[in-house]
Amino acid sequence: MPSAYSEIMKLELKTENENYSKSILHIFRTVFNIAIVIILCEVTLKLRIISRNYLIDYNCRLLSVEKSSSNFKKLSRLSNLKSKQKIWEFCSNKIVK
Description:
Layout: H1 2-65, H2 69-79, H3 84-96
Helix pairs in contact: 1-2, 1-3
């Protein structure tokens, strides 16, 4: 009888270890997924900044060739500048650099 009892105890210990390892694995997966989401959000924000800067450069160069009101409006939205004089100064500083 004692040998059967010890086998049952071993079986219980084994299932507790499996549950423990499954819970640790679940925690690691959750942390890994959260880290991936954070990294992707940071990459998205960086690409947005790069894209915005590229658009500003492109529209400033376009404005230096063709001084249309649509180019001023686009740059006004991108740079948050309202007057044409400030936009022109901003673009002249951008093109020189």
